[in-house]
């Protein structure tokens, strides 16, 4: 509905909105397509990433729960977020958090190398570096997000907003959770 409204006001976006939103049957498909295209590189195929992301989104109720809670959090708590569609397509903090959620799921499925590749690509593309073993709750906002680093021992609870330039983690070699 939001994409159709945007299209009626800005016909220049017809190809873009059709490719990224209108041609997909669900929010999960839109997110998988968006992330796949953003993280694609010469060595990571957009279609392969799309299929991977969609598979995780279909398989994990926890990842979906986080996705929906994060999307609602942006719409409810971020005054810059006028529509869900705008957040989904353009808010790099939201997108980076969803890549983390997928990477965290993959890490827990013992697909650690793939989870680390996604972490690295998300860091390059979004300037947000979240280790796949960090513990992050639902309803998270990474507002502006540039320079956010969340290390492997960090714990972020539910309904937390984090601004740009924040690092959570430590330099000690003792393995302990940092909240």
UniProtKB/TrEMBL annotation:
Q: One Pfam annotation, family name?
A: SATase_N
Question: Superkingdom of this entry's organism?
Answer: Eukaryota
The record's Gene Ontology cellular component field reads: cytoplasm
Q: Name one GO molecular function term.
A: serine O-acetyltransferase activity
Q: Where does the record place the Serine acetyltransferase N-terminal domain? A: 2-99
Q: Name one GO biological process term.
A: cysteine biosynthetic process from serine
What's the protein called, per UniProt? Serine acetyltransferase N-terminal domain-containing protein
Species of origin: Ceratopteris richardii
